[in-house]
Design a protein that fits this description.
Shape: globular
Structural class: alpha/beta
Order of helices and strands: EHEHEHEHEHEHEHEHH
Strand content: 5-15%
Radius of gyration: 17 Å
Number of strands: 8
Distance between the termini: 16 Å
Low-confidence stretches: none
CATH class: Alpha Beta
CATH topology: TIM Barrel
Length: 251
């Protein structure tokens, strides 16, 4: 069964060691049968301007085009952010990531409006990273403010493009799927609950669930087993593992 990881990372994490080199990530993917991963640079979380981390990401993915696809991190509000996004689009990027917990300017009204206007008419998918990991694992000097449900809904209401919510909890996923339209998608890596897949997935929303691992911050086995061990029928598992992602990005 083909598996595409819509939400993962590469690089070094600031608060603990992770298996984030290209070789380590490829080994993880092979172990659980992931064919292809959309990846962002972990270093971009703490950069005011994530462009330098993105350029290193492009260098890495250029060497592994058959397995990795770059997802640059963007920070609307930082000088020249429009020019940077234009360069990424010109390089064929299909997904951009925003991380409001670490780049809170993304949610400022002026920047939010500017991002919406800039992306209007573009063939792009936006990955909104909601949660990252338990705040108790962060260094004592790092205390990101994760967006509230109301802030996320406000963001979604203004975006003209398809949006994937990464790092979303079960409770929030349930609410988002019930209260948003077909341009909003949910990635499953952070969804934890007994029988989570069986309780969350319905015939109406099964085309809006995407497989993601958030590796190497989370172990990829957790996400793959979440789907494989569920009681979902084979067709629904195929949709979540790859089909939905392929339809979303036009692959």
């Amino acid at each position: 069964m083909r598996i595409i990881d819509i939400n993962s990372f590469i690089g070094h994490w600031f608060s603990r060691p992770v298996r984030g080199t290209a070789a380590q990530r490829l080994k993880q993917m092979d172990k659980v049968g992931i064919e292809y991963s959309f990846i962002s640079p972990l270093e971009a979380f703490l950069y005011d301007d994530p462009n330098e981390a993105n350029e290193e990401l492009f260098r890495v993915t250029e060497k592994h085009k058959d397995r990795f696809e770059p997802v640059p991190v963007v920070a609307p509000g930082y000088p020249l952010w429009r020019e940077e996004i234009r360069r990424y689009l010109d390089r064929g990027v299909r997904i951009l990531r925003v991380i409001p917990a670490f780049h809170p300017s993304v949610l400022d009204e002026m920047n939010l409006k500017g991002l919406a206007e800039f992306l209007a008419g573009e063939e792009i998918v936006l990955l909104f990273q909601w949660m990252i990991e338990d705040y108790r694992s962060f260094h004592g000097l790092v205390r990101p403010a994760f967006p509230s449900r109301q802030q996320v809904l406000g963001f979604l209401s203004q975006m003209p493009c398809d949006v994937v919510l990464g790092g979303i909890t079960y409770i929030e996923a349930e609410h988002i799927l019930a209260n948003t339209g077909g341009k909003v998608f949910v990635e499953i890596s952070y969804i934890e609950k007994t029988r989570a897949m069986e309780d969350l997935v319905t015939p109406e929303n099964s085309n809006r669930l995407l497989f993601g691992t958030m590796a190497p911050l989370l172990v990829p086995e957790a996400a793959t087993m979440k789907v494989q061990m569920s009681r979902l029928d084979a067709k629904t598992k195929i949709r979540i593992f790859s089909q939905n992602a392929l339809q979303l990005i036009g692959g």
